[in-house]
Design a protein that fits this description.
Elements (H helix, E strand, L loop, with lengths): L1 H38 L8 E2 L24 E4 L4 E4 L2 E7 L8 E5 L1 E3 L9 E7 L2 E8 L5 E5 L8 E8 L12 E5 L2
Parallel strand pairs: 1-4
Antiparallel strand pairs: 2-3, 3-11, 4-10, 5-9, 6-11, 7-8, 7-10
Length: about 180
């Protein structure tokens, strides 16, 4: 009986030590995370939190206005899309659960181009200044690209779309590269 009691005391002592160790580890881990967030160089006020899997709709009643600035190369929301204007359009996302995650960007869009000269609009896609791919955006989408996990910086993602030859389809005076639906 004494051996059983001694054995139980040893087990209880080990369990208590493990619990204390886990508590200390978690406390220090949280402290490090908080310090990392405080010390980040990224201005998170420029980013809207994005939950992975959420569809961003660029249609008139969609939610794209939460993630873009008109000054970042976007036109107003139209009935079924929003136009990417000029040579560069930017989308800024803060992805709280994005660290260490490989992502897939899928864009449903159609190109705006001079029809007698081109059959598509050449769009170069960047994520945090890293070139991902070149899309030839014609009359139909969607277009997709994988974003490797190492590209994410401070859980933020700046997507940039560079157009080769924005075009102003008559009577529109705006230079448009593509019309994005979602």
């Amino acid at each position: 009986m004494r051996k059983v009691i001694n054995f139980l005391l040893v087990i209880i002592t080990i369990a208590a030590l493990v619990c204390v160790g886990v508590y200390i580890y978690n406390r220090e881990y949280r402290k490090t995370l908080i310090t990392d967030i405080i010390n980040t160089t990224t201005d998170k006020s420029k980013f809207k939190p994005y939950i992975l899997g959420t569809n961003i709709s660029f249609a008139r009643n969609g939610n794209s206005a939460e993630y873009i600035n008109v000054s970042d190369g976007w036109g107003g929301q139209e009935d079924v899309h929003r136009c990417a204007l000029g040579n560069t359009s930017v989308l800024r996302l803060y992805i709280p659960d994005g660290a260490g995650t490989t992502l897939r960007l899928t864009v449903d869009a159609f190109g705006v181009f001079a029809p007698k000269i081109y059959d598509s609009q050449k769009i170069t896609v960047y994520a945090n200044d890293n070139m991902l791919t070149v899309w030839y955006v014609g009359y139909d989408g969607p277009f997709s690209v994988v974003i490797p996990d190492w590209i994410m910086i401070d859980n933020t993602l700046v997507l940039r779309f560079e157009a080769a030859a924005p075009y102003a389809p008559p009577p529109d005076k705006r230079k448009i590269s593509m019309a994005v639906k979602n």
